[in-house]
Amino acid sequence: MEIAHPYLLFLGDVPDALAAKTALGIVDWRPEWCLGQLRLPGCAADAKLPDMTIAEAAAAGVRTMVVGAVNAGGVLPDHWVVPIVEALHAGLDVASGLHMRLADDPEIRAAAERTGRKLHDVRHTSERFPTGKGTKRPGLRLLTVGTDCSVGKKYTALALEKAMRARGYAADFRATGQTGVFISGRGVAIDAVVADFISGAVEWIAPAADPDHWDLVEGQGSLFHPSFAGVSLGLLHGAQPDAFVVCHEPTRTRMRGVQHPLPSIADVIDLTVRCGRLTNPAIRCVGIAINTEHLNDVDAARTIAAAADAHGLPASDPIRFGLEPIVDEIERHWPR
């Protein structure tokens, strides 16, 4: 899937920044590809890009409008159809990470056919996956797991890739969600794979490799989340991780979108080890990545220190402080 850039990021009228995490993730990791944003009235998210009309974006050289907003169920709201059709008529391709295929809307499909523009549904793939086999394969793998969804699993994996490469490791980010695919140019949106083939798809994402090569697999959901635990478990078994990092947002008390309380970090470590031993008996936790976005500097440092002390593991915020302590732990167990 070749998606032409630069991008115009469409944020729709989402109610908060988390609902625009696809767009915000692209800006954070591929800022050079992003020229502007398009927001509808009532939008509560801001990617800190110039606000543009579609005509202005086309004149500025934008090649693809990316639907950078998400919602429960991944549906396409009816009132988003008009700007998507307008973008196609302005000569832009349109890419989406929603579950609903763009061409399933008759107006969008007709506009794409009339204009000859491309529709990219990043969450869908034409690849056919086998069922997972769980057979031990060469190479090393790390999986990011979470106490909840949207706590920083993708950012942690990307930050680890950057930090490990700086140390001389052969390490590659492996995308399992739509934003990660936009960022890396390769991967599979695991939550769109039929359940029987989730672990097989992850084996395809992170195949056999050189013995000292690390695949840094982007986690999804949480083993404790009643909506997404099935995806998280299939991903864990397919990734067959040698190491995992727990990602946590300390200001939450309930899991996103449901009334269930947030599990403890200790609960996540314990369940991940017990479930992960099915495909890798040697699985171990190598650190805790804490999203301190909503804490001041003093509280952030105190929270990170408390987590490290409580669990006897290195802890850090991948964006605020970097992940050098966790890379140190990896190097301690798997010296180069």
TrEMBL record:
Domain called D-glutamate N-acetyltransferase-like N-terminal: residue spans: 42-124
Domain (D-glutamate N-acetyltransferase-like C-terminal) ranges: 131-327
PANTHER family in UniProt: DUF1611 DOMAIN-CONTAINING PROTEIN (PTHR40690:SF1), GLL3100 PROTEIN (PTHR40690)
Protein name as annotated: EBNA-1 nuclear protein
Taxonomic source organism: Prosthecodimorpha hirschii
UniProt lineage: Bacteria, Pseudomonadati, Pseudomonadota, Alphaproteobacteria, Hyphomicrobiales
